[in-house]
Design a protein that fits this description.
single chain, mainly alpha, Serine Threonine Protein Phosphatase 5, Tetratricopeptide repeat, 2 domains
């Protein structure tokens, strides 16, 4: 019993030291301490989350995934943890700029809800919520390094994230360390965040017991998020791939009535920007014209000033494009 108490105390000290090192960006040193933990059959949520983050920061994705699996095993034990509680914890990490931890938790919440006993429509709803929150985490990270003024102005109109980004490092970190960590966080946003969003989109597309109109709109919303994310990452080709998915989903479900939704107009406007960036000026002109028409026809604008401003932006982009034809 005394030995067990000693082990508990030692593990606590190691965890606190590792957490301090991780806050300073010293992830290798942190993992070295965490690997000294006395063997225990119990899964410790805090320790596994810290391990998952450190391994991800070090590029050891396989080890990180095993930690995530252990957390999911813990949270799926009866009574199963509510996925929305995990999302709320992720929100707290986002507020405090612990974005990698937030990404891990949002992935876990999405995985957990898929094996829950909730009805399909509720699972679909929570997954769409997770999708949006992951998007909110990764896009500022990607945008920080590759922002394009033309695209950036449009994306801000379409979805204003309304906040800056810190890279989640401790304020006392040296500039070189901050830069190195920021680059690694960007890689995580691409290889972990966007990869998982693409998997989620495929899963959402396979839901069958959902109202078809609601499903089409949600899928299109997810597609436009990926469209904007890859634009922020500077990948116009992939941006157009998901843009096309969004347009096709809406046209398949609503036919010409897709014009009722400003989402459809935004997709065309995004496509115009992407083709412009790729010097496909004729295609850019086509999409800007479609965007203007769709914005004018959309039924779901609550603010006419918003409609007017975004149409003016599309008209300005169209004018710039035509000068290059």
């Amino acid at each position: 019993m005394e030995e067990n108490k000693y082990d508990i105390l030692q593990n606590f000290i190691l965890e606190e030291r590792a957490r301090t090192l991780a806050l300073q960006g010293m992830f290798y040193e942190a993992t070295s301490l965490l690997e000294e933990f006395t063997n225990t059959t119990e899964i410790d949520f805090g320790v596994e989350l810290l391990r998952a983050e450190c391994y991800l920061q070090l590029g050891r994705e396989n080890k990180s995934e095993k930690c995530i699996e252990r957390i999911e095993q813990l949270l799926s034990m009866p009574p199963m943890c509510d996925a929305t509680d995990i999302i709320s914890l992720g929100d707290e990490f986002i507020k405090n700029d612990f974005r990698v931890k937030a990404l891990i938790l949002l992935k876990i919440s999405c995985d957990i809800v898929q094996i829950s006993s909730l009805p399909p429509e509720k699972i679909f709803e929570i997954m769409c919520l997770c999708f949006s929150k992951i998007d909110d985490v990764v896009r500022p990270i990607l945008r920080k390094k590759t922002s394009n003024s033309n695209t950036e102005n449009l994306l801000d109109m379409i979805k204003n994230l309304g906040r800056g980004l810190t890279d989640g490092t401790d304020s006392i970190a040296k500039p070189k360390l901050q830069t190195k960590m920021s680059e690694r966080v960007r890689i995580i946003a691409l290889d972990f965040g966007l990869e998982y969003l693409q998997e989620m989109l495929k899963t959402l597309e396979n839901f069958s017991e959902i109202d078809p109109e609601r499903k089409a709109l949600n899928i299109a919303e997810c597609a436009v998020m990926l469209d904007c994310d890859f634009d922020a990452a500077g990948d116009n080709v992939k941006s157009l791939k998901f843009n096309k998915i969004g347009i096709e989903v809406l046209e398949k479900q609503f036919d010409t009535s897709a014009l009722r939704y400003k989402l459809y107009a935004n997709l065309h406007q995004n496509a115009g920007v992407a083709h412009y960036n790729l010097n496909n000026f004729k295609k850019a002109e086509h999409h800007f014209l479609q965007a203007i028409s769709a914005h004018e026809s959309a039924w779901d604008y609550d603010d006419e000033n918003e409609r007017r401003n975004i149409i003016q932006k599309a008209q300005s982009d169209l004018k710039d494009t035509r000068q290059l034809l």
